[in-house]
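Escalation from tier 1.

The customer reports that the assembly of two entities below gives different structure tokens on two consecutive runs. Tier 1 could not reproduce it. I'm attaching the input and our single run for tier 2 to review.
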Amino acid sequence: AQKVTQAQTEISVVEKEDVTLDCVYETRDTTYYLFWYKQPPSGELVFLIRRNSFDEQNEISGRYSWNFQKSTSSFNFTITASQVVDSAVYFCALSVKTGTASKLTFGTGTRLQVTL
Amino acid sequence: DTAVSQTPKYLVTQMGNDKSIKCEQNLGHDTMYWYKQDSKKFLKIMFSYNNKELIINETVPNRFSPKSPDKAHLNLHINSLELGDSAVYFCASSLALVGSPLHFGNGTRLTVT
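Tier 1 run:
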């Protein structure tokens, strides 16, 4: 069975601070994918990034960066110089193959509040 | 152009009623899903269809019945609604490739009174 743990329920930061959202996963599959989704107050779920289990290269996209470490089963997400628009609930998710579908197992989410 | 659209956006109904939520995607994806998000924001998969065939059916009461008339549509019908069914229901679609990201609709907030 798959499991995703986001231990931080809620984080509050002041604008321009850097913040890291933690994600730890469990799976026995050797091939898997990790995702981050953002859910702003408006409620939609926005795909941010996907990583496969064979690619441990870190990734940077603007103010966002992701650190994937198989040795610690972690896929952490850092926002540099946070902005108020970053306020949202962020979900980490794990996908393994189930037939012809990608079954996403989500973590419980981390609510990020960025204030002025 | 909305990629995954679901209707209605809000649904308020009384216990015991039957209701449906519709979902359509124009991304050309073969696989569609229904997820439920509870009041604590926890997201859990309910069903998945690939080209009209049911491939994932999690432990969901049989009052919930998905229907896929074609690969671009996946509707969710709920019979005999209960208070505990109140949640946000998200439709999603993806390519039929492992690891394909899911593209979600904007959700349907169901409130059962």
